[in-house]
Design a protein that fits this description.
Elements: E1 5-10, H1 15-30, E2 34-38, H2 39-45, E3 52-54, E4 65-70, H3 72-83, E5 91-95, E6 105-106, H4 110-119, E7 123-135, E8 142-146, E9 149-154, E10 161-167, E11 170-177, E12 179-184, H5 191-194, E13 206-212, E14 222-225, E15 230-235, E16 243-247, E17 251-254, E18 260-274, H6 280-288
Parallel strand pairs: 1-2, 1-4, 2-3, 4-5, 5-6
Antiparallel strand pairs: 7-8, 7-18, 9-12, 9-16, 10-11, 10-15, 12-13, 13-14, 15-18, 16-17
Helix pairs in contact: 1-2
């Protein structure tokens, strides 16, 4: 697919990301591809008068690719903007952060990646999205999408909570833990990994249900088919207001007494672009330092 318009978004508090965005926009402009910059990123980089800008919510509309400069959090923010719009634009991540499991292109590889992009030398990976629906008491439900994970946890205070877990309408367990993570294969290397969950290859059509610091050590992560519907209902005292559902670490929704959330496969997917021949296992070796001395 020819690339003639590219949307660019950066972590606007990271100078290295803003510098990379400016360099990429300059290169694209010089090679016949119109850059369109997310407004806050353009203002932070001081390029709002140099190129066309667009709001984050509409950046994915009318472009052929969306490029995120920063870490995985920046790409997740861009993914959320695309997923919650009518856009189906593919995303490419340039890593200016730390691990960068999603943003595979390093700063030194950026020009080569842009060349590959314009020449059509890319491959597309389709990633499953999670759809979370929070059933509120006396109000309309809240619906959100997530690429990595949906997390049920406490807010300001770190305290153990009790959660009733059901899968496809079948009661599974009453879990005592600091929280629960429902992660995609894409998100298995994020919070799920830190909580002791398994690494799942992105081609596997599955969810992972991982307790956070469970009170009972036999509460272990469970790998579920992506066709499953996971229901989480906190068992709470009459008045706590600190239970939160977080989507990709980007958007939090308070959960009240008696309220619950259902998580299932979303009816749409997200597309990630790859411009290198780096395999998933090469990425894991590099990011997790496997075999390094």
């Amino acid at each position: 697919m020819p690339i003639s318009r590219a949307g660019l978004i950066a972590r606007h508090t990271l100078p290295a990301a803003l510098s990379a965005l400016t360099d990429a926009a300059t290169w694209l402009d010089e090679h016949g591809c119109q850059p369109i910059i997310e407004q806050r990123s353009a203002e932070a980089a001081g390029v709002q008068r140099r190129w066309k800008t667009a709001r984050r919510e509409t950046l994915g509309l009318g472009v052929d690719v969306l490029i995120a400069f920063g870490g995985d959090g920046t790409l997740l923010d861009a993914a959320s903007a695309v997923a919650h719009s009518s856009s189906d634009v593919p995303l490419l991540g340039v890593n200016l952060g730390h691990l960068g499991f999603l943003t595979e292109v390093g700063r030194s590889e950026m020009t080569g990646a842009l060349e590959a992009l314009l020449q059509g030398h890319t491959r597309t990976e389709t990633r499953l999205l999670l759809a979370g629906r929070i059933e509120h008491a006396g109000a309309a439900p809240t619906d959100r999408l997530a690429l990595n994970d949906v997390v049920l946890t406490r807010g300001a205070l770190s305290r153990m909570m009790e959660i009733d877990v059901s899968i496809d309408g079948q009661f599974v367990s009453h879990v005592k833990a600091d929280g629960l993570i429902v992660a995609t294969a894409t998100g298995s290397t994020a919070y799920n990994l830190s909580a002791g969950g398994p690494i799942v290859h992105p081609a596997v059509d599955a969810f992972v249900l991982t307790p956070i610091a469970p009170h009972t050590l036999t509460n272990r992560p469970i790998v579920l088919p992506a066709s499953a519907t996971v229901s989480l209902r906190p068992v709470v005292e009459p008045s706590p207001q600190d239970i939160v559902i977080t989507f990709d670490g980007q958007h939090g929704v308070p959960l009240g007494s008696g309220e619950s959330i259902e998580v299932r496969r979303a009816p749409r997917v997200l597309r990630l672009l790859r411009t290198t021949a780096r395999t998933h296992f090469e990425m894991l070796r590099e990011k997790l330092k496997w075999g390094y001395t």
